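Researcher: Go.
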Amino acid sequence: LAGDSAHQFYPVGGHGANTGIADAVDLGWKLAARVQGWGGARLLDSYEAERRPVALFTREMCANLLEVYRRFPRLVQHGATRQQLAGFLNEEIYQLDNVGIHFGYRYAASPVVSHEDGIEPDWRWNRITPTTWPGMRAPSVRLADGAQLFDRLGTGFTLVDLSGRAAGERMVKEAARRSIPMTHLQVDDDAARACWERDLVLVRPDQHVAWRGDRVPDDPDALLDLVCGGRQFA
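Model: Structure:
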């Protein structure tokens, strides 16, 4: 189930559409992985673990915006002046400047993400925190040649390699051996290196970060098992 068949939102602000589309993207690549044979049995279980917390959070944010729609006609009915109404709406502009709600969510409890210890990055209502913290959406970067880094990501997994020495080659070869679709994207760009924070960042088909590090793990096969729905990775 995805979109309005799984949840219903108040029809304000586009929260329901954005949540439903992201549901379908999350579920779509996981179904494809199972059908194609490289996705493990635990991959589909991760759908609810990832998307339900996002939907519940977004529903509460949607309720904030609904209150604006509820109060405005009451203010008019009670005789508020045009200046008062304009001032009220001006204070509520932040409700629509909500890019953090729609793009800043993170899969903090996902069983198919290699999580890190430490304090997760701040969340902001009106902006995106650009980080490759596992579980979050990979940050968009315009490269020195004018291209968008997102446009170079593959349709399967993408190992973004900022090491300058092809440090991720061993993991990509292991993925190929297991028929896991993975693009080895080597990037030599200072802006991307500063924003992406690690030499190696594994991006999922839905553009969320599955893992990051400065070198390939000693057991890359175990990491691939984790992100594709297999056994735990330590």
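Model: The longest helix spans residues 46-77.
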